[in-house]
Automatic annotation (TrEMBL):
<feature type="domain" description="Acyl-CoA thioesterase-like C-terminal">
    <location>
        <begin position="184"/>
        <end position="302"/>
    </location>
</feature>
<dbReference type="InterPro" id="IPR042171">
    <property type="entry name" value="Acyl-CoA_hotdog"/>
</dbReference>
<dbReference type="GO" id="GO:0009062">
    <property type="term" value="P:fatty acid catabolic process"/>
</dbReference>
<protein>
    <recommendedName>
        <fullName>Acyl-CoA thioesterase II domain-containing protein</fullName>
    </recommendedName>
</protein>
<dbReference type="Pfam" id="PF20789">
    <property type="entry name" value="4HBT_3C"/>
</dbReference>
<dbReference type="GO" id="GO:0047617">
    <property type="term" value="F:fatty acyl-CoA hydrolase activity"/>
</dbReference>
<dbReference type="InterPro" id="IPR003703">
    <property type="entry name" value="Acyl_CoA_thio"/>
</dbReference>
<feature type="domain" description="Acyl-CoA thioesterase-like N-terminal HotDog">
    <location>
        <begin position="37"/>
        <end position="115"/>
    </location>
</feature>
<comment type="similarity">
    <text>Belongs to the C/M/P thioester hydrolase family.</text>
</comment>
<dbReference type="InterPro" id="IPR049450">
    <property type="entry name" value="ACOT8-like_C"/>
</dbReference>
<keyword id="KW-0378">Hydrolase</keyword>
<dbReference type="GO" id="GO:0006637">
    <property type="term" value="P:acyl-CoA metabolic process"/>
</dbReference>
<dbReference type="InterPro" id="IPR029069">
    <property type="entry name" value="HotDog_dom_sf"/>
</dbReference>
<dbReference type="GO" id="GO:0005782">
    <property type="term" value="C:peroxisomal matrix"/>
</dbReference>
<dbReference type="Pfam" id="PF13622">
    <property type="entry name" value="4HBT_3"/>
</dbReference>
<dbReference type="InterPro" id="IPR049449">
    <property type="entry name" value="TesB_ACOT8-like_N"/>
</dbReference>
Amino acid sequence: MDDQGQAEHEQISTSLEVEKLDTTLFRSKSLWLPIRGRGVFGGQVISQAVVSATNCVDPGFGLHSLHCYFLLSASPAIPILYHVEKLREGRSYTTRSVKAVQNGRVVFILLCSFQRPEPWQPSHQWPMPANVTPPEQCILEETRYEKLASTEDMKPKLRTVFLEYADERRRSPVAVKAVPDPGRTSADFPSVHMWWMKAKNIPKYEAPFQKAILGYMSDLHFIGVAATTLGLKRMSKGPDALAMMSTLDHSIYYYNDSFDCGDWLLYVILSPTAGEGRGVVHGRMYTRSGKLVAIMTQEGVVRADRRDPQKEQMKSKL
């Protein structure tokens, strides 16, 4: 791997694979730096940490939640070491922590909990949004970028950017389709964004690896909804230009063990608040049949291209 990173693997199993070095020590085999990304794709780090932790847990327990912090941007040029610590061994729940280390520095930490299944307990869920355009009627992201690139009077620099994104999405192990004009689910949630996602060409993996794949997918398009809700734009200039976007923390709650990431999952995302250079997003992921399988929350740095007025005023006085 060079300092510029490498292409995203076409197989999700390759992207998530880690090498076992010791009982509780694992090492990444590949790392992907997205185009114009600040560091290794966060979803890949989450998933590799989940795979590492799962390898250190009795298979009778299933992952039900994870909470993580991104501390430093990881380089794709150096493998990440995942140190798993066994924090608690209970009869119903067991807990693990994972420290991701690169160049002697902790770049990421994960706390995750596993539960012995209790399917006989009562349950409820929020319903899947109504009248969602099915995936068969939505277009792939690479197709959308190609159409944008072919727009008349498109600036050469922007055309190059769109074609780069199209190529990256085409080689991705995850197929993504935006749901056109998702509209409002209620007056309380005026800006809802939805995507259909699925892992390409995968066999019927068992639940533990399906959950790791979902962790990878959950970081796609997530914090970007906060920027979009604020009206910030990429590749733009002025006070509404997006100057920086980076994940701070990420949480997932799993509520199903029978979903298949090889079939389309609907990712419903909204941003309840943003300010102080930060934004929060909430996500729900449903199967095609409407089963709610996971809840996600993320906070990230979301900065517009604006300066602190007090500092600017001080400069003007000098």
